[in-house]
Specification:
By secondary structure, the protein is of the alpha+beta class. The protein has two domains: 1-87, no CATH class; 143-445, Jelly Rolls (Sandwich), CATH 2.60.120. The chain is 18% helix and 21% strand. It contains ten helices and 23 strands. The chain has helices spanning 41-46, 80-90, 108-121, 143-160, 176-180, 184-187, 233-238, 241-249, 326-329, 377-381, and strands spanning 29-32, 55-58, 69-70, 92-93, 123-126, 128-131, 136-139, 168-169, 193-197, 220-225, 255-263, 273-276, 284-285, 291-296, 307-309, 320-324, 348-352, 385-387, 394-398, 403-405, 416-423, 428-429, 444-445. The strands form six sheets. Strands 4, 5, 8, 9, 10, 11, 14, 19, 21 and 23 form a ten-stranded mixed β-sheet that branches. A four-stranded antiparallel β-sheet has the order 12-20-15-18, with no helix packed on it. A three-stranded antiparallel β-sheet has the order 1-2-3. The termini are far apart. Mean pLDDT is 76; it is low at 1-107 and 130-135. InterPro entries: Phytyl_CoA_dOase-like.
Length: 446
């Protein structure tokens, strides 16, 4: 490995005062200590998620990033100004202002921090606000919204999904093309709500295993991709003032919503989501404008498969594009009966946007080697960091940001609702994208 230090986010080169316990460590990576409490149960008890009282750091030893080490008695309150730099560098932005969640969640200084975080590292975690009238701490989505979305999805599954009629799995590994490209069920989900099972929830005959017959929602991997179009909790949240304000504060002038997903990440069987960039699937021209709004509906932890991101990777080129296969659809990319279709071909394919010499990423569509938790050494060495968060937190990130999640090894599910938005002004949705709305429908405008 090269002796040059990999480019990673730091404290923006700011020198700490000599009196600070952080002096001399400007080039280290500083993160809230609770992110590193998975190592053993004693530390978990001593430093629970909400106890952000210490900092941890990673140091480059000339060959690899060292394991995090604790800095005793370095209280966050002692380095408040420094912490903002740290949070900007790693994009852990704490919205903690005298405002309501909907009316003015983004005062000027916070807006500047969020924009800076998105531009520099491609992501921003919006954790909480303080409601002035009641001094009540509010997540980006309050508990009522979270519970309403979860209960609404449960009703949708119970009333609308019949696994005896349609049981298609969703995969992101080497079986992805086969899973998503052999039937119209995936293709027809663009403006509807279709349901996709975990592969480990099915038996060899492709039917639900006995343990899921009476609890079919526990067998699902995801639902998509028109959930935001259903009246009720999901549409109310999508059209909420806080979502619209956030997108405009981030620079989207005419934001619209091509798709939404509900990810279940089931206990014990919730599969990995391999490394990818969202713009691979939501391609726009003449530039990429996709932004993901990843809302946690359950606490996301290292144990149950929280998101891992590679800060700064949004500055890299888009590596590939998921497109309709012209050999299957014909040059029109729709079934128009022109006679040049070959329905034996896969419906969708990946088109490489970079050749091997241009692309240094060896884990595209996979997980970096040696990523087994709890150490996850291979992920850290590849530049990924985990993003644990609480139910109601929102992670916003650019469509080119490299991200993934590991399997859920825990006894608790990790539900999320995700909006993917694009710029509607001066950009075009690629006609090659796998997802195309029927001619009489257009994307929801916010």
């Amino acid at each position: 490995m090269s002796q040059d230090r990999p480019r990673r986010p730091t404290g923006k080169g700011k020198e700490f005062p000599e009196s600070s316990l952080l002096a001399g460590h400007e080039d280290a990576i500083w993160v809230p200590w609770h992110m590193w409490t998975l190592k053993n149960s004693i530390e978990r008890k001593a430093c629970k998620c909400q106890s952000e009282k210490h900092l941890a750091k990673l140091d480059w030893d000339g060959d690899s990033w060292k394991r995090p080490s604790k800095v005793p008695e370095t209280k966050m309150t002692d380095v408040e100004e420094t912490l903002w730099d740290t949070k900007d560098a790693l994009n852990f932005v704490l919205v903690d202002q005298d405002c309501t969640a909907d009316e003015c969640i983004f005062p000027t200084d916070v807006t500047e921090r969020i924009n800076s975080a998105i531009q520099e590292t491609g992501m921003c975690l919006i954790r909480e606000a303080v409601e002035k009238a009641t001094i009540q701490r509010l997540r980006f989505a309050n508990s009522g919204e979270v519970n309403s979305m979860k209960s609404t999805m449960k009703e949708l599954v119970e009333n609308n999904w019949n696994p005896k009629i349609e049981t298609q799995v969703f995969r992101t590994d080497e079986g992805q093309l086969e899973a998503q490209s052999t039937s119209d069920y995936f293709l027809d989900s663009a403006a509807r709500v279709h349901y996709f099972a975990e592969k480990d929830a099915l038996d060899n005959a492709g039917e639900l295993k006995a343990e899921y017959q009476s609890d079919k929602i526990a067998a699902l991997n995801k639902a998509g991709h028109g959930i935001h179009l259903t009246k009720g909790a999901f549409q109310d949240y999508t059209r909420s003032e806080k979502v619209c304000n956030l997108l405009r504060e981030l620079g989207w002038q005419e934001p619209c919503v091509p798709q939404s997903m509900y990810i279940f990440k089931q206990a014990r069987i919730g599969g990995e989501v391999t490394s990818h960039q969202d713009s691979t699937f939501l391609y726009t021209t003449p530039r990429q404008t996709c932004i993901g709004l990843w809302l946690a509906l359950d606490d996301a932890t290292l144990e149950n498969g929280c998101l891992w991101v590679r800060p700064g990777s949004h500055h890299e080129h888009l590596r590939r594009q998921f497109v309709r296969n012209p050999k299957h659809f014909g040059e029109s990319l729709v079934y128009d009966g022109s006679g040049d279709e070959d329905h034996a071909e896969l419906k969708m394919i990946f088109r490489q946007k970079m050749n091997e010499s241009q692309n240094p990423i060896t884990w595209e569509g996979a997980i970096p080697e040696n990523a087994t938790p709890p150490e996850c050494v291979g992920l850290y060495e590849a530049g990924f960091i985990p993003v644990p968060c609480k139910a109601g937190d929102l992670l916003a990130f650019c469509g080119e940001l490299d991200h993934l999640s590991l399997p859920n090894y825990s006894s608790k599910a990790r539900h999320t609702f995700q909006l993917h938005c694009i710029e509607g002004k001066d950009t075009q949705w690629s006609k090659e994208n796998w997802m195309q709305y029927p001619p009489n429908l257009s994307f929801m405008k916010l």
